[in-house]
Design brief:
- It contains 20 helices and 16 strands.
- The chain is elongated.
- It is an alpha/beta fold.
- The strands form 5 sheets. An 8-stranded mixed β-sheet has the order 7-6-10-4-11-14-5-15, sandwiched between helices. Strands 1-2 form a two-stranded parallel ribbon.
- It binds zinc ion.
């Protein structure tokens, strides 16, 4: 008797998926793997790179077609080399896995914000704090990270490579590398004039080759900081510090307010048409410097640069930690120095002074979900000022106008310009909504600064005082498709480099220093920069040291008799 076999029941989907997963993705060799993965990156993760390359180099001609083709080959070879040079298969997969994740986030921030993945951007990424990360996270980023990052990063481990001896693998890779380099160099040689223009005139474009740019920049960053740590002893460039005899018995109090991401173009005091400085505009004794250039386009550069004795032209951020800075000179001269931080830390500047971190302070009035408004740093100020007996410097490191979540920088009652963009996804807001939200942050900074000045003024019977405010860098608000900041300085738009700066002096301070009325206001029209900060603060504190440069002291020339003491 024959038994009829049962017709096979269709397998349930879960089983079929499991079988598919177990079978893996077939691939003929390591070389095919490297070039396959690289092709995916080049085609799907490099939209910004191709946009910028085309904008820079494309014109309808045979030469241009040849150049773009050769650029494609060159970029493909560079990406593939990152994988082919991994010594083992396991490392090659691990590298591909990691780079998918890096590339996914890189693609998002380059496309949405016009970000550039240079060393400075990597420094910002490495030095960022949880609240900054939270400010950048949204459903789009997460979805992007999962679909284009995590999923392919896992699939990489399911690629089935043939069992071949290491000799065969090595041979295949070596041959592929030689051929690929020959083809790439051949293309570069054939289009050498185009490449000369491309590399010389359009430098920022190469910082968008995803994910090579991030890897190269991270290696550069690590190499730089490794060098700095190797030479540990602290250098004191300032030497002996001298104090001019004070003409007043009152303690001197200086507030140094380091702003964040405020650009000069949106300051009413500098001529902006909107009322973004309603409170400061009413305050006497205040001088606004309408032409101030920043040292860097990121916090990580500008903050250490401000407190360094070196001008921008000589300043090297990797070496900054090796030098004593402005705060050290103030301490040495006997000042009480305190750093109050509502931003992402002092970038090494406050290493040897009192540091109060206001981030995620459990303060019901000023803080919500690990985000505090800048006024949190002022809460105990009247009390602090009452207790001051000695000369004191307090630095306030603001959160200011830090993006992209501008609407999180000010309490709801300060939403003066409406409708304001209430999202951290700027691409979902209109230009007007973005500008409104940003202007609200400036108006809130106006309120914070005016409050600080009022507090100093109220204490003026006991204290002589002065406030200096300067922003660390500016911000792009979508002009030419560029948002936020951190572009390489040479290519950054003016909006990222032109910052607001102001000096307020109490009447007691004017008498004490014998300042000529209106003198500062005349100086305020000339071009100045972050280079002036170190020397102006030192001079304002009646100090001089070996690196003090009177030409960079904004106040020195305003003392009666030219201030030559
Ligand atoms: Zn900043």
């Amino acid at each position: 008797m024959h038994t009829q076999p049962f017709p096979a029941a269709p397998l349930p989907l879960s089983v079929r998926l499991r079988e598919r997963w177990a079978a893996g993705i077939p691939c003929s060799s390591d070389v095919a793997f490297a070039f396959g993965v690289s092709f995916i990156w080049l085609a799907l993760y490099n939209v910004r790179f191709w946009q910028l390359s085309a904008a820079a180099m494309w014109h309808p001609s045979a030469g241009s077609v040849l150049f773009m083709t050769s650029l494609f080959v060159l970029a493909w070879v560079v990406l593939a080399l990152l994988l082919l040079l991994s010594p083992t298969r396991w490392l090659m997969r691990a590298a591909a896995s990691l780079m998918f994740v890096i590339a996914a986030f890189g693609a998002y921030f380059m496309s949405e914000y016009g970000a550039i993945m240079n060393t400075e951007m990597m420094r910002n990424v490495v030095q960022t704090d949880p609240s900054e990360v939270q400010g950048l996270l949204n459903a789009d980023v997460v979805l992007h990270g999962v679909l284009l990052g995590i999923v392919p990063a896992l699939l990489v481990w399911r690629v089935r490579l043939p069992e071949t001896s290491w000799r065969t693998q090595l041979g295949q890779r070596a041959l592929a590398i030689v051929v690929a380099l020959c083809v790439a160099f051949g293309g570069m040689f054939a289009c050498s004039a185009n490449y000369a223009t491309f590399f010389r005139e359009h430098k920022p474009v190469r910082y968008t080759l995803n994910p090579v740019a991030q890897i190269v920049s991270l290696v550069g960053l690590a190499a730089g900081s490794g060098k700095a740590k190797a030479n540990a002893p602290l250098i004191d460039p300032a030497g002996k510090i001298e104090r001019r005899a004070a003409t007043s018995a009152k303690p001197l109090v200086m507030f140094l307010v380091i702003g964040e991401t405020a650009r000069a173009a949106n300051f009413q005091l500098g001529g902006y048409a909107r009322e973004t400085n309603p409170e400061l505009a009413q305050i006497s004794g205040l001088t606004y410097f309408s032409n101030t250039a920043s040292c860097g386009t990121s916090t990580a550069i500008s903050v250490p640069c401000l407190f360094s004795h070196l001008p921008r032209s000589d300043f090297k951020v990797d070496a900054a930690d090796r030098y004593k800075n402005l705060l050290d000179s103030l301490v040495q001269a006997g000042f009480d120095v305190q750093w109050r931080d509502n931003n992402s830390g002092c970038k090494g500047v406050c290493a040897r002074v009192t540091n109060i971190d206001y981030n995620q302070k459990p303060d019901a009035q000023y803080c919500r979900d690990s985000n505090c408004f800048d006024a949190v740093m002022l809460e105990d100020l009247p009390e602090t000022l009452r207790k001051i007996e000695r000369d004191t410097v307090i630095v306030f490191h603001q959160k200011g106008s830090h993006g992209p979540y501008y609407s999180e920088r000010y309490p709801p009652e300060f939403e003066k310009f409406q409708p304001a963009c209430r999202s951290n996804q700027l691409q979902h807001c209109s230009q007007q909504e973005i500008t409104n939200a940003y202007d609200n942050t400036i108006a809130y900074t106006d309120h914070v600064l005016a409050s600080q000045i009022r507090m100093l003024r109220e204490a003026s019977s006991r204290l002589d005082s002065l406030l200096i405010y300067v922003s660390d860098h500016g911000e792009s608000l979508g002009e030419n498709g560029i948002y936020l900041h951190g572009m390489p300085y040479a290519f950054a738009p003016e909006a990222q480099k032109e910052v607001p700066m102001l000096i307020w002096t109490s009447e007691g301070y004017v008498r004490r220093e014998q300042l000529q009325p209106d003198c500062l206001r005349t100086e305020a029209r000339t071009p100045v920069s972050h280079d002036f900060f170190y020397h102006t603060v030192l001079g304002a504190a009646e100090l001089r040291n070996q690196v003090y440069d009177r030409r960079l002291d904004l106040i020195a020339g305003c003392r009666r008799g030219g201030g030559s003491e």
